[in-house]
Inverse folding.
């Protein structure tokens, strides 16, 4: 069944090559599908062999543990990468780049998604995470999401209230997101460009964009900022081997070179402990942790 896959199939592929943190042990079987049929073949193979499946997009929100991932890793970045525009709607494949979609929409005088600018993501990863900022998340714009169930059949989901919550999309467990429809709004290109420029300027000034990271490690607790709490407990700049709590933004952990997942997790444990002791409530992770 693997032989029917027209995309790439690799064994023992280091996932550090596929994560923005540049950390992660090998995937037993690593598949970059070429189309929906390839995804189906991969899912059916995994089901037949009773192997777990992990889907990844651009790997921008992932901490992969050092011993890697058993079973199948499906990487959708680049596969299903098309976006089409119909009136004020975009229909995007799960592997399309979020930033490319925002740029292409702007060129057609279509805006709305400016609040998502600067978030490194595939559309699938952005949907799964309900990626966003303080003034909007992708779920606010989704009119339909499309996915494959683990048995390879197609599903459509019309988001209802509660489908998208803070950094989460509650879609059927085990499903692979393959695309979505997004509602956009007419806006002149120049206005969009000005807005984007301003937002990117703020990101650049406040986030350690030149260093390898996975964005914010922790969700913000209600009414507060995880970064502020981490700073308050004196951990800004704290380093364990190659991993460091960014001195620019305390909710980011950066890889200064040679960091392992164990180093990042040790920093996370320390943070969790200190914040819980001082502020008496638990921090919840925003990054997704996978592997052994
Ligand atoms: C410098 C930097 C800045 C960032 N800033 C922000 C920010 O402002 N706001 C924000 O929300 N995030 C931010 N992030 C985090 C990250 O960009 C987002 O979470 C993004 O949505 C991840 O997309 P991805 O394609 O890389 O997904 P991945 O990291 O590959 O995957 C994320 C999760 O989605 C699941 N997934 C991915 N694709 C699919 C699919 N097709 N079907 C089913 N499940 C899938 C994965 O299993 C995983 O659980 C930042 C990250 C970095 C490195």
């Amino acid at each position: 069944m693997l032989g029917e896959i027209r995309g790439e199939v690799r064994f023992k592929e280091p996932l550090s090559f596929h994560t923005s943190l540049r950390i992660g042990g090998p995937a037993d079987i690593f598949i970059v599908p070429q189309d929906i049929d390839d995804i189906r073949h991969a899912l059916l193979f995994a089901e037949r062999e009773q192997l777990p499946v992990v889907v990844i997009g651009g790997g921008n929100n992932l901490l992969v543990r050092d011993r890697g991932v058993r079973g199948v890793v499906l990487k959708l970045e680049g596969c299903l990468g098309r976006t089409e525009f119909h009136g004020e709607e975009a229909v995007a494949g799960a592997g399309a780049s979020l930033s490319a979609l925002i740029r292409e929409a702007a060129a057609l005088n279509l805006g709305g998604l400016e609040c998502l600018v600067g978030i490194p993501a595939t559309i699938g990863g952005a949907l799964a995470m309900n990626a966003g900022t303080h003034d909007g998340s992708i779920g606010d714009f989704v009119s339909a999401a499309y996915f494959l169930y683990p048995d390879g059949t197609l599903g459509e989901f019309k988001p209802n209230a509660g489908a998208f919550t803070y950094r989460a999309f509650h879609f059927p467990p085990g499903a692979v997101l393959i695309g979505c429809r997004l509602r956009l709004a007419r806006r002149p290109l120049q206005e969009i460009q000005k807005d984007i420029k301003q937002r990117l300027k703020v990101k650049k000034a406040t986030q350690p964009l030149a260093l390898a990271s996975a964005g914010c490690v922790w969700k913000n607790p209600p009414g507060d900022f995880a970064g502020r709490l981490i700073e308050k407990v004196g951990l800004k700049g704290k380093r364990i081997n190659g991993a460091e709590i960014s001195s620019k933004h305390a909710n980011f952990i950066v890889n200064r070179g040679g960091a392992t997942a164990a180093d990042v997790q040790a920093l996370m444990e320390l943070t969790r402990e200190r914040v819980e002791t001082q502020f008496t409530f638990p921090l919840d992770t925003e990054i997704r942790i996978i592997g052994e």
In short: Residues 221 and 235 are 18 Å apart (CA to CA). The longest strand covers residues 176-183. The domain at 208-290 is CATH 3.90.78.10 (Uridine Diphospho-n-acetylenolpyruvylglucosamine Reductase; domain 1). The chain has a mean pLDDT of 97.
